Amino acid sequence: MRLNDLGHIAHEEWISSATLRSRVTVDEFVVMPNHMHGIIVLGNDFGGTGAIGLAPRHRGTLQRAATVERFGKPTSDSIPTIVRLFKSSVTTRINTRRESPGKPVWQRNYYEHVIRDGASLGQIREYIANNPAKWALDRENPEIRDELTERWRREYNTIRPHNSLGYRPPAPEVIMPRVQLVGEPR
Asked: Is the model's pLDDT at 76 over the cut of 70?
């Protein structure tokens, strides 16, 4: 994936997440044009747990950081805090560059999944590594979005059976041709 200037900001801030936090390591990740995927490894005093360590390196009581946050009481080095600070720093830098203070950059939420074993880690790393190849087929890709919308419109209005028509396709004589507006790209 070739990143533009804004993508480079997200890339730099993701790497910096681990630099700023001694208990955090970033594993496989990719910045896409409209989203990103990444693995965050949370370590502890025993040498690391999570995706890379998979288990504590020393025996003893496993010390866990609290991961449940309450409003106004963020938990240091928790996934929600790391993601919130990452998104905030990227947003600040992007809006400074675009001279658009306060403009949203990210979707409201994020997806997290606990990786419990090496097989799962391998599958997720592969998914992340292969994600850029799937962009050419992604319905959010602006280069193909209009084409997909037009295909759907044609199918919906000419081929697809409609409940209101007794599950028959629309009659060809009722199909209205698409009118191109002045200044609209072909």
From this structure: yes
